Amino acid sequence: MKRLWLLLKAILSVTGAILVLAYAVVQHQSKAAVEQLVTEAEQWEGDATKGRYVAVMSGCIACHTDYEGSGLELAGGRAIHTPFGTVYSPNITRDSRTGIGQWTKTDFLIAVKIGMNPNGSHYSPAFPYSAYNRMSTGDLVDLWAWLSNVAPVENLVPDHEVPSVLMSDVSLSLWKSLYFNVTSNWQSESRGEYLVNAAGHCLECHAQRTVLGGIRNKSLDGNSRGPNGQTVPGITAINLAAWSHEDLTFFLEIGMTPDGDFTGGSMTDVVEHSTALLTAEDRASIADYLKSQRNTQ
């Protein structure tokens, strides 16, 4: 019994040391990334007209609007059911009490690219900052310029229904240390790759997840544990071999598959509030990338 207790004590000590180390490393990396963002933010003024389009291609409107509850645009409250519990998208209007009305441009960039709120706490990875970290600072400053002109809506969003231990800074730091490289210098090779793997954050739904909720292999080969319990199909070039370029652009525009069926689930909102509103050129760029050898398993 004594040996068992000593073994348990040793395991707990090692686990605690790992958590403390992960927290320290993530805090250090985040601090360096924040300093860089502060410098970058000063170099951009932002264009609200362009920002509206960035919101469309990034899926902000679909996620931050509770359509089922007849919520107002960007006022949050949309329930997203995950294997770890239910999270609710936040209010990102300029309401000073329930939204982001007290945020600065730098606060916004840090939240979107680093996954930290203005208080320095870490966000849950249900917020796809690991994809948005790949977006250009210019695009995000344009998005901020547009959001700054959106009418404030007072809407207090429910608290996440996730065990508090999973939402603690220590747990989220461990997750980040495993699955998020805040100092990544990722570069897209095409407009389509940027729209799919950065702004459109397609990996968040279409990639397999580990038991801890991290993206397993950065491949769009499908996910059996998607949002709201849905099975999400693979969309690698191999998965889409039977689809023509025109099939893909038509699907992105109206949501209809080559066999005449229409998409359902979360993808319905993605098409209606995002891909259908993209330019024809951007939809073609997405199709080009999805059919390319860059998009393989």
Task: Outline the structure in words.
- With 297 residues, this protein is mainly alpha-helical.
- It folds into two domains: 2-185, no CATH class; 192-290, no CATH class.
- It is 44% helix and 3% strand.
- It has twelve helices and two strands.
- It has helices at residues 2-41, 48-57, 60-63, 105-114, 129-132, 137-147, 169-179, 191-199, 203-206, 245-254, 266-273, 280-290; strands spanning 79-82, 85-88.
- The protein has a two-stranded antiparallel ribbon.
- The longest helix is centred in the N-terminal third of the chain and has 40 residues, at 2-41.
A few lines on this structure:
Helices cover 44% and strands 3% of the residues. The protein is mainly alpha-helical and 297 residues long.
What is the secondary structure topology, with strand pairs?
Elements: H1 2-41, H2 48-57, H3 60-63, E1 79-82, E2 85-88, H4 105-114, H5 129-132, H6 137-147, H7 169-179, H8 191-199, H9 203-206, H10 245-254, H11 266-273, H12 280-290
Antiparallel strand pairs: 1-2
Helix pairs in contact: 1-4, 1-7, 2-6, 4-6, 8-12, 10-12
Secondary structure tally, helices = 12
Average pLDDT works out at 87
Structural class: mainly alpha
Provide the domain count: 2
What descriptors fit this protein?
two-stranded antiparallel ribbon; 2 strands; mainly alpha; 2 domains; 44% helix; 297 residues; globular
